[in-house]
Write a structure and sequence with these properties.
The chain folds into two domains: 136 residues, Enolase-like, domain 1 (2-Layer Sandwich), CATH 3.30.390; 230 residues, Alpha-Beta Barrel (TIM Barrel). 37% of the residues lie in helices and 19% in strands. The chain is built from 13 helices and 16 strands. Strands 6, 7, 8, 9, 10, 11, 12, 13, 14 and 15 form a ten-stranded mixed beta sheet that branches. Strands 5-4-1-16 form a four-stranded antiparallel beta sheet. The protein is globular and about 65 Å long. Bound molecules: magnesium ion (MG). The site of magnesium ion has 4 residues, from loops.
């Protein structure tokens, strides 16, 4: 007897922290009345109090699936898409039809041009929750349903150094090194003295063998990015991330082919179509799918397309409660070409809100859990920070 979906619930989770993402606000960066501020270095909006969007799907027999997507900016928009539109097409369905459901929901809005953005974020949350249920109904971790486990553990690189001065950022990187990590990424918008000063100082602090990458936050023209890459090359960056505007695929192709550096992109992609456009044009060397945007179904499609083209996969990990990070680790374990995975320390610090130890990252490696589904269950503490969103 099939156990069908009975209910879809959407929650906004409060993930407030003392310091804004990427560290203290710089000169001229001000929080507006809605709580938003813009980083001058990348012209991108952030929010003072971080938050995320979580989906709980319940079956008739009471099996609970958890999903999550970006809720940092305008979370009510994504919640409305789920409550008003998508949940009606998910209720009554068999969770084992998860890929078919994903494709049906995707097709609903193509004609109207909704092939990205908030619409696919909403789909990602539902997709993760359905895979979680399929795993739980099978008694298996999701990676076993995705073709099986290639990795027992996955290398982790530390994401960002949210301190106010270069000296403090070097000290923070050093403290990660002392905790067994051998890779770190710095963010160019808050590298106050520029990319070259930042990587030079980090290289001197961390030594020749340490992996250092630079997130360029889409802030440059292709000419500027190629020049910056040339200037950073004496300090041997591991990879350069998101060097130019995502819309400029030809420009990205130029950077990938002329910079002499390893170019990594993908955190803003939603589907394999985004990946195809860049991979077919030889515009990147490493792909960085972000589970919070792709869901498990598209994450795997992107990963397999990258593998078929001999590209490495180093998944992205953004701010969240940890639900989409857990899903990302399950999918990553099922992709042979995953070489490392971003380590978003905020998920492991004050916001570590799960009842089990499914999310573990020590000595620079994530452990992959064998728990059924995606392997995490929100604790009572996390649930007390979740607000139900209704229409
Ligand atoms: Mg990035």
């Amino acid at each position: 007897m099939k156990d069908l979906v009975e209910k879809v619930e959407v929650y906004i989770v409060d993930l407030s922290q003392d310091k804004p993402y990427l560290g203290s606000l710089r000169e001229g960066e001000k929080v507006n009345s809605a709580g938003y501020f813009v980083r001058k270095g990348n012209r991108t909006v952030y929010v003072k109090k971080n938050r995320s969007l979580v989906v709980r799907i319940l079956t008739k027999d009471g099996v609970e699936g958890w999903g999550e997507t970006y809720g940092i900016i305008a979370p009510q928009a994504t919640a409305a898409i789920i409550n008003d539109l998508l949940s009606g097409f998910v209720i009554g369905r068999d969770p084992f039809d998860v890929e078919a459901i994903h494709d049906e929901l995707y097709d609903l809005m193509r004609v109207r041009g909704y092939t990205g953005g908030f619409y696919l974020d909403a789909l990602a949350a539902i997709d993760i929750a359905l895979w979680d249920i399929a795993g739980k109904l099978s008694g298996l971790p999701v990676m076993k349903l995705l073709g099986g486990q290639y990795h027992q553990e996955i290398h982790a690189y530390v994401s960002g150094l949210p301190e106010d001065t270069l000296q403090e950022r070097c000290a923070l990187a050093k403290s990660w090194q002392e905790r067994g990590f051998n890779a770190v990424k710095f963010a160019l918008p808050v590298a106050d003295d520029g990319a070259v000063a930042e990587i030079k100082e980090l290289r001197e602090t961390l030594g020749e063998d340490f992996k250092i990458c630079c997130d360029m936050h889409w802030a440059h023209s292709s000419t500027e990015a190629i020049e910056l890459a040339r200037q950073m090359s004496p300090y041997n960056p591991w990879f350069l991330e998101a060097p130019i505007a995502t819309e400029d695929v030809n420009g990205l192709q130029n950077v990938a082919q002329q910079s002499g550096q390893t170019i990594a992109v993908g955190e803003e992609w939603r589907t394999v179509y985004d990946a195809r456009l860049r991979i077919d044009n030889k515009a990147c060397h490493v792909v960085q799918p972000e589970m919070g945007h792709t869901g498990i179904t598209q994450f795997m499609r992107i990963g397999r397309y990258a593998e078929a083209h001999n590209l490495d996969i180093i998944p992205h990990a953004t701010i969240g409660s940890g639900i989409f990070l857990a899903a990302s680790l399950q999918a990553s374990a099922a992709l042979k070409s995953v070489k490392s995975h971003e380590f978003q320390h905020s998920v492991f610090g004050p916001f570590r809100h799960f009842t089990n130890d499914a999310l573990t990252c020590e000595n620079g490696f994530y452990t992959i859990t064998d728990s059924p589904g995606i392997g995490v269950e929100p604790s009572d503490k996390m649930k007390s920070n979740m607000s139900l969103v209704t229409l």
